[in-house]
Amino acid sequence: MDNSDISNVLITSDEIDKRVKELGKEITEDYSGMNPLFVGTLKGAVIFTADLIREIKTACELDFISVSSYDKSESTGIVTINSETKMPLVGRNVIIVEDIVDTGKTLLSLKQRFKDLGAKSVKIVSLLNKPSHRIIDDLDVEYIGFDIPDEFIVGYGLDFDEKYRNLPDICVLDESAYQ
Ligand code: PRP
After folding, report:
1. How wide is the angle at C-alpha 23 spanned by C-alphas 20 and 27, nearest 5°?
2. Whose CA is nearest to atom 10 of ligand 1?
3. Does the CB atom of residue 99 touch ligand 1 within 6 A?
4. 10: pLDDT confidence band, cut at 50, 70 and 90?
5. Catalytic sites, residue numbers
6. Mind listing the pLDDT tens digit for each residue in 138-158?
7. Nearest partner of 20 among 97, 96, 85, judged by Cα
8. Pair 61, 85: CB distance under 8 Å
9. Ligand 1 geometric centre to CA of 44 (Å)
10. Which residues on adjacent β-strands are paired with residue 147?
11. What pTM, to 2 d.p., does this model score?
12. Of 10, 32, 152, 154, whose CB has the highest number of CB atoms within 10 Å?
């Protein structure tokens, strides 16, 4: 595979694995007996969702929503829902599973949407958090895997122009790829 656009590994698959286990343990303790509904955001969070849910040691359910807001490397600021959740959200304790919080617009929009659909509670678990890009200041992200610097990153589900989602590590994309 041609990985010439990758400049370095930011978070290794071993580090991801360890942190996902910690998050799973914390969420299991917080939601024990509450039958939480995990909603993974496609496509970026698909790999994180698959790994996280196997670390949840209490009864839970799973659904997905497909959203997009990026055109290549640029946030358009418009959150488009490509495919809705399938399960009723009324009265459910929902945990949105996200790969990265950047501006925060996607999660603000989803949190409000799920509350409007009748969820009893809506919390967020995001593997990555890029605080330097935040536009929505008052967004609560209850569970965060890693804070990351202002770099364009790919791998473990995250893409650049739909490529690199298959990399097991989280890697920095060389600036020359998108400038
Ligand atoms: C990415 C990422 C988050 C969102 C975060 O999705 O997966 O859903 O952007 O950005 P924000 O905090 O600025 O809203 P993208 O639109 O690239 O779609 P994808 O998950 O299919 O790659």
Report:
1. 140
2. 102
3. yes
4. very high
5. 102
6. 899 999 999 999 999 999 999
7. 97
8. no
9. 7
10. 129
11. 0.94
12. 154
**Is residue 46 classed as helix, strand or coil in its secondary structure?**
helix
For the residues 16-34, what does the mean pLDDT come to? 98
Does 103 sit in the ligand 1 pocket, CB within 6 Å?
Answer: yes
Q: How far is the CA of 58 from the centre of ligand 1 (A)?
A: 28
For residue 71, the CA-to-ligand 1 centroid distance in Å is 10
Dist CA 158 CA 174 (whole Å): 15
Ligand 1 atom showing the smallest separation from residue 130 Cα: 12
Half-sphere exposure of 92 (CA within 13 A, CB side): 22
Cβ within 8 Å of residue 59, ≥6 positions away: 33, 35
CA 99 to chain centre: 2
Return the residue matching tokens 């593997």: 127
Q: Whose CA is nearest to atom 22 of ligand 1?
A: 44
Most confidently predicted of 2-11, 75-84, 112-121: 112-121
pLDDT above 90: residue 39: yes
9: exposed, middle or buried (Cβ count in 10 Å: 0-12, 13-18, 19+)? middle
- For the Cβ of 68 lying below 6 angstroms from any atom of ligand 1, the answer is yes
Cβ of residue 40 lying under 6 Å from some atom of ligand 1: no
70 Cα–ligand 1 center, Å: 6
Residue 170, pLDDT above cutoff 80: yes
Query: Atom 13 (ligand 1): residue with closest C-alpha?
Result: 103
